[in-house]
Amino acid sequence: MQLKTVLQEITHHNDYDLSKISMDELIKEMLCNIGSTDPELRDALIYNAFGKLIQEDYLKVDQWRYIVKTCMDTNHLFLNIGETETDSVFSRSFSSLVLALILEKDSQEFRLSETEVREIIKQSILYLELERDIRGYVKDKGWAHSVAHGADLLAEAVKHPYFDMGLVDDCLKAVQHNLFKRNEEGIPYLDDEEERLVFVIEALLGRGATEDRIASWISEVSTNLNELLNREGTNLVFFRKRGEIVRFFRAVYFRCLFNGNFPIIQQRLLKELKAWHELFYD
């Protein structure tokens, strides 16, 4: 309750005197509770407070480094990685969001070293690969949304000037891997996870990934979906996964269309969407 009170003051009152508290102790408490199952504390307060403290320059670079080191450890971003349907997902998911906040700010100010940033980028790819809990909103506990948050982190990693374009294929592999994840019941993404994965593709294109490479990758995704059809037949698992891939393709198409760019990618998407539509509805 004391932590909640302090965070409410920080997030709701612009004139709150931060000199009254120990920032180091506050950061430690926030990180200790970042995986709380209390959605108000975790999401409305801790995440928003980190956003304010990072974006409005209340933290020293040593405090940034402490946050980064802690968020990437095995008690946060990789806490019980591989588990599903457990509360550890909240620690992983919200640690990824805090890292995304730091990357976004650092891309403008370069407070971290190139080595430090490249390590965050490396871990962001690994996290999106390894996460297995694909729940979005969890009743009584709020947003887990690990895939969406992991995609947010990877998008910020790609947009950072220190991103190595040699990692383009690794990023595409991570996105593709998430497009084909499913839980035991085959329940699809329910909370716009496909839309958030699109941001990674958009970030890669913004950094100079070629249209031909992305178009080729789109065909690879479609080929993998066809392989799933051959293995599973037209069962419920395939039907739901086809719906996810189609929604993802549509989202990429409309993002390109809205931006008025990437005609090669648009044409490839139209080709794949037409083929899948004709297979089932013509």
From TrEMBL:
It comes from the Bacteria. Pfam families: DUF2785 (PF10978). This is DUF2785 domain-containing protein. It comes from Virgibacillus halodenitrificans.
